Amino acid sequence: MLDQKVVVTDIEEVIKRLNTRNSSFDNLREIVALSEERKSLINDLEKLKEKRNINSKKIGELIVQKDLTQAEELKQLVNNEKKDIEAIETKLELIENSILKIIEVVPNLPDQSVPVGKDEEDNIEIRRWGEPTRHLFETIEHDKIASQLNIIDFERGVKLSGARFVVYKGMGARLERALMNLMLDQHHKRNYVEIEPPILVQPQIMYGTGNLPKFADDAYYIEKDNLYLVPTAEVPVTNLYREEILKEEQLPIYHCAYTPCFRQEAGSAGKDTKGIIRLHQFKKVELVKFVKQEESFNELEKMVLDVENILQLLKIPYRVIVLCTGDMGFSSAKTYDIELWMPGQNKYREVSSCSNCTDFQARRMKLRYRDKDEKIKYVHTLNGSGLAIDRVIAAILENFQNEDGTVNIPEILQPYMQGEKEIK
Questions:
Q1: Statement: the pTM of the whole predicted model exceeds 0.85
Q2: Residue 261 placed within a domain
Q3: Top EC class per UniProt (predicted)?
Q4: Binding residues
């Protein structure tokens, strides 16, 4: 969440920058008034506690002097002071809860380098790699060719779990596993330590990364156990060091993790209902970084290159775009999307978002580090898909298909597929 001190001391600038996120955050001004009230109450509380301590000490002195009448009078006064202290503490708790209720649903401040815009139309392309695939025959969309090749069973997925669930089978399941291993192996070479986290997490873990309370409708919740299925490995991996104070020399920390991911996609009715672009259960390799404050934006650029490396090895054309203020995620201060080319749809589709969340998540998780001067600072956290496996499979099926209905397996994947060169 945002630093309350920054909000209070620079409220107009904070609101101005937040309002570029295509929403209004004028209600943040309430925090200024609440903070002033809190400051006044804390001042009153300190005076009362000081007065109570003085009177409590006097009671002991009066008892020694055997002045029991005055001692009893002071005891009554101290009891009244205790009640006044409790009343102020109750008011302070209510104010803290009011401030929290406002600020916990406010997104991160966009970095000054982020382009201002309303939606995806205002995102800016940074670079491209590879020429978009143009077949000399009519391209078959990924869902149709997957059914023809009998590698994804859409109907039985629906039979088992409902809409937006699929069953991978045969070469489809092997391709999914091959991609997972390729990605983890490549990220290991770039110093990411592999993590295998739980896929069920407690509410405070979802809260730490900003998924709760704002995005509760997108989450799968198990009421009996008060646990959530993870929407991405970012959630458990980013929380690994919550409520800890790390040493500066421990940073940076790089992690990668493969998990199934679960999202209800509550706001996506009617979008991508065919195929494997937008599933309720999907597979992903996630990258997470914990870094010093002054290094986070440089680390973001390096993370994007780590993601691009996978697509270059697979030889899938892609482009990198920087998201505008109105299209960024809740916890992000700056985000790059990597979009791969889908010739069946004749457009680029997102396969990864790489974000610098600065200290936004760390404040929610109370994750800090001690620098060389013994000063306590909040860690900066970054995350990115490295990559969303189902979408890579869709791109392979569309980019590497042949006129006879077969699909070539990218050369880098063939050793992971026991030497198989095509799906037929």
A1: yes
A2: yes
A3: ligase
A4: 232-234, 263-265, 286, 350-353, 383, 385
